[in-house]
Every structure is written in C-alpha cells, then in structure tokens.
Design goal:
CATH class of the largest domain: Alpha Beta
Number of strands: 31
Distance between the termini: 39 Å
Number of helices: 14
Largest sheet: 8 strands, antiparallel
Mean pLDDT: 86
Strand content: 25-35%
Helix content: 25-40%
CATH superfamily of the largest domain: P-loop containing nucleotide triphosphate hydrolases
Bound molecules: guanosine-5',3'-tetraphosphate
CATH architecture of the largest domain: 3-Layer(aba) Sandwich
Number of domains: 3
Strand order of the largest sheet: 27-24-26-25-29-30-28-31
C-alpha cells in the first residue's frame, strides 16, 4: 500500500474524561466492536482508585497496565485506529496533556448526570489550544440525568465550543427508549434486559413524522419530534469543515456500559475524524505525506525491572515511513541511532514491526538517550513544537536524605524529570531544588521510584508557592528591575530558562500589573 493510502486510513485519537464518566468502558466497547478483543473486561482500568495514595504496589501495577494499554491499535472497516490511553487519575494530568500532543482528534466522554466536570474543562483547554477536533459522547443515558438540551448548553458554555448533536436520546433512565441517529437517520431501540450484547434493534426512519414511530417510542413520540424540530432551529447543520477546524463538536448520546450508541459513534468517527495532520516544528510545518521520516517522543516509560535501566520511548510518527534497523538522526544529540526492535501496539499486545507510518506510535527501547520532546529525522535539524510543560500547581523542596548517595539521587531526579514525572526548578538565591507537580501523588511516586530504582533517598520540605511561570521580556530595563526586586522568587527550569515563583494569586497579579512589559507564561512553550 502506498504511503498516501496508509496515512489516509489512519485515525489516531484519545478518549478523555473526568474520572468515572466512562472512558475505560467506552474504550473497551470500541475495541469490542473493532474485533480487537472478544470479551468485556479485557481492558483494565488505568485508574488509581481513590484512597490508594500510599499504596505503591498499586502504583507499580498501574504502571504495568499503562504500558500495556498506552496505545491500542486495531483495524475496523479497513481503517487503522490508534487509541492513545490517558491516565484516569487527575494527578497524572500532565501525562494526559502530553498524550494530547500526539493525537489528531479527541473523544470526550461526559456523564450526563454530572455534566461537564473539572478535569474535562482542563482537557478541553488543551484541545482548544491545539485546535484538536473533538467529538463528545454523553454517557450513561440508562440512568436519570440532566435534560439533553441543558447538557448541550453546558458543553457550549463550559467547554467553550459550539455543538451539533448527531444523535438524540428518547427519554432516559428507567424509561430510556433509545437513540435516534441523525447522521444515518436510524432509530436504535434500547432494551435494558439485553445489556452486554451488540444489539441489532435498529429501525430505519427516514421520515420522523411517520406514524410508525409511535410503535417504537410511544408515549415520547411528540416530545421527540418537538426536540428534533428545536435542534434544527437552534443548531447549525453538521459541516465537516467546522468539526475539523475545532469550531463545532458533534455530540452523541448513549450508554457505553450497555453497548448503546457506541457503534454509531465509531461508524461516524471513522468517516469524519481526521487522518494524521500537519505538525509544527521550530522552523517549518511538516506534512505527513513527505517521504522522509520525522517523529517526536511524547512519552517515556521506565522499565519496571529495577535491574535494567532501559526505558520505552513512545515515538509519534509525523511524516514518512519508519523502518526497522535504518539509522535516524537524534536531533538533540546530533547522533545516528538505529532501532532493531521497535514495537507496535495492537489491542493489548506488543510486537516488533518492520515499518510504521504517520499516525502510528511505536515503542523504542532506550538506554537513556531520550527526553520528552526529542525528535528523530533523516538528517534535518528540526524540533517539533507543542509538547509544552505546564505550570505546576504543587511544590516542595527536595533534599538528599542519604549523603552517601548524592550521585544516585541527582541521576534519578534527572531521569525522572526527563520522563516528565514532574518539573525541577533551582532557586536562584540559594540553589535549592524545588519539585513542581500537578498532583500530590507525584511526590510519593518520585520518592518511591528514587528508592527502588536508583537506591537514593530523598526527603521533602514544604514551600509555600502558588504557581511557577516562565517569564520573558524585550524590555531589558524592566526585566532587570523585576529580577532585582523578585530575586528570592526567581528560579531556573532544567533548560536554564527563567521562572517566576509566585507565592499567591495576589503576588502574581501584582507582578503582572506592575511589570507590564514582562510576559508571564503558564506553559513552557511560548
Ligand atoms: P473512567 O474510565 O472514565 O474512570 O470510567 P469507567 O469506564 O471506569 O466507568 C466508571 C463507572 O461507570 C463504572 O462503574 C462503569 O461500569 C460505569 N459506567 C460506564 N458506562 C456506563 C453507562 O453507560 N451506564 C451506567 N449505568 N454505568 C456506566 P463502577 O461501579 O465504578 O466500576 P465497575 O465495578 O462497574 O467496573
């Protein structure tokens, strides 16, 4: 098959949600429909249960699962689908944000009883920033929840994206009748006693005014017709372009647990979701159809075996064809590397591949060469953009707790930061090291992994900080003045870039108001 055909038949996306909305269930049902798995329960929830904060075996177990389910590839109707898994626990949100840099589209799952929740808002912010097309799946219609119009309003206002329903629920909860698929003009009937099978109860209804409808959805027929009428009045008709440009999100309703509305979603998804898109680098835009290979590392997974230091680097292929045993340029190190056992991920299996194409994710064995954001090319000196670090929200000083193991500690911290577990800042005034994370769990993960993988001991000390933001300015005088006044609140990140450590929202606001020529950035890429 030609490179062009391979690219056009690929869909690389992530399913994201607030914990418990149904991401794992939907992923599993998509794999079932795709024939990639045959029994429910094969996809383990990549979720650290609430209250498991100090259960490190749980964390280790999750790390094992998460490498197995990091990428789930399968073929459906001649389309190669790559689902990228994202951690469910919000303390690992940064991992999720980075995964979103490697996808071409996103499916957001919302629990229709809970509506838009905090984690969904944050994830949508990243999608909006990257103009990633999103489809929304409103889940759990078998339970009583909000009115579907209210859900749509909530999505529009809270996620700041226009919506267009492509399916519509008929009643909900105990009286849930089914979903009308506007995309295909078909009515899917719901029978709650028939929970886990693929239902064939689909009625083709091209004319919703037909009296035949009563037979299936009475006494909700009039209500349903009114709803459809209102939808056509209020929402613009579906246009592929506005979805692809991330202005409008098509919305589906269903119940993942009951396999309901999932196939409609998948059928529509393979038709409308984008194939691999262009990617931005520091010097030019890379087109996936270019013949030369380019790709970047968006995730690094340390080996679970403490006796071996090798890690798995996940490379997203952006253009060209990746070939096993062919030397490629590691741009940051300026050296040639070839890979004898690149792995591809199909459903829950990992296997060695000879070729991979744009949109594919491959796992490369790494002995410490890779950092997040590293680029592979056929010689060209470019770096991909859009793999930022996000401003952390929790901070602690990290100190060496075993003077004999200083080297091990600094190596361990260095490698964990390369993996993107957290961020390290060095305070300018006293050289003390500060770990910044997006979630409290990370501190314990770092401490545990330092001890078990690097034989190093660390201890934390509290520091009262609100946010770290990267600063820049063309006004040298103002910058110097700022540096002088805020010396105790300045640090450098691991690339040596200057960071302002604000102790409170108030001090950040004051700094922004007073130093108007200084830009305060909340992601490392600006
Ligand atoms: P997550 O990955 O987004 O965190 O959510 P997950 O799929 O694990 O689903 C969270 C809970 O919601 C699970 O129940 C799951 O069975 C349930 N669920 C998912 N989809 C539906 C649906 O369409 N209808 C209903 N009624 N429930 C749904 P749990 O009790 O937390 O876990 P489990 O013991 O069932 O695995």
């Amino acid at each position: 098959m030609s490179l062009e055909k391979e690219i056009k038949r690929r869909r690389t996306f992530a399913i994201v949600s607030h914990p418990d909305a149904g991401k794992t269930t939907l992923t599993e049902k998509l794999l079932l429909f795709g024939g990639a798995i045959h029994v429910a329960g094969a996809v383990k929830s990549n979720k650290i249960k609430k209250g498991a904060t100090s259960d490190f075996m749980e964390i280790e177990r999750q790390r094992g699962i998460s490498v197995a389910t990091s990428v789930m590839g399968f073929e459906y109707k001649d389309v190669k689908i790559n689902i990228l898994d994202t951690p469910g626990h919000e303390d690992f949100a940064e991992d999720t944000f980075r995964t979103l840099t490697a996808v071409d589209s996103v499916i957001i799952v919302i629990d229709h009883a809970k509506g838009v929740e905090s984690q969904t808002r944050k994830l949508m912010n990243v999608c909006r920033m990257r103009k990633t097309p999103v489809i929304v799946f409103v889940n759990k219609l078998d339970r009583t929840g909000k009115d579907p119009f209210d859900i749509l309003d909530e999505i529009e206002s809270e996620l700041q994206i226009k919506v267009r329903p492509l399916s519509w629920p008929i009643s909900q909860g105990p009286t849930f009748k089914g979903v009308y698929n506007m995309y295909e003009k078909k009515l899917n009937l719901f029978f709650s006693d028939d929970k886990q099978t693929v239902s064939d109860d689909v009625v083709e209804i091209t004319d919703v005014s037909s009296p035949e409808l009563d037979k299936y959805i009475s006494p909700y027929t009039d209500h349903f017709r009114e709803d459809l009428h209102l939808i056509d009045e209020v929402y613009p008709s579906f246009e592929l372009e506005t979805y692809l440009s991330a202005e409008v999100a098509p919305v589906f309703f269903g119940s993942a647990l009951n396999n309901f509305g999932v196939q409609e979603l998948l059928n529509c998804f393979i038709n409308i979701a984008p194939h691999p898109r262009k990617s931005t680098t520091d010097s030019r835009i890379v087109d996936p159809f270019e013949s030369k290979l380019t790709g970047f590392v968006f995730k690094i997974h340390a080996n679970m075996d403490p006796n071996h230091r090798d890690r798995l680097a996940f490379l997203k292929i952006c253009s060209g064809t990746f070939e096993r045993n062919k030397p490629y340029t590691h741009v940051r190190l300026g050296k040639q590397i070839k890979f004898s056992s690149p792995s591809a991920f199909m459903a829950d299996k990992k296997s060695i591949v000879d070729f991979a194409y744009p949109g594919d994710i491959i796992g490369l064995h790494d002995t410490g060469n890779f950092k997040i954001g590293d680029t592979l090319t056929e010689g060209e000196n470019i770096m991909f953009k859009g793999i930022p670090s996000f401003s952390p929200e929790m901070f602690r000083y990290i100190e060496n707790a075993d003077p004999m193991k200083f080297k091990q500690l600094s190596k361990g911290v260095d490698q964990l930061m390369d993996e993107g577990v957290a961020q390290l800042f060095t305070q300018k005034s006293n050289g003390r090291k500060i770990i910044g994370t997006v979630g409290a769990l990370q501190f314990e993960v770092i401490q545990y992994r330092l001890e078990h993988e690097y034989s190093a001991l660390c201890r934390y000390e509290p520091i009262n900080l609100y946010k770290a933001c990267w600063i820049e300015s063309t006004n040298k005088e103002q910058l110097d003045d700022f540096r002088k006044r805020k010396y105790n609140n300045l640090a450098v990140d691991k690339h040596g870039r200057e960071v302002f450590l604000a102790d409170s929202p108030y001090s950040l606001q004051m700094a922004q108001d007073k130093f108007t020529d200084i830009k305060f950035h909340f992601t490392s890429e600006f």
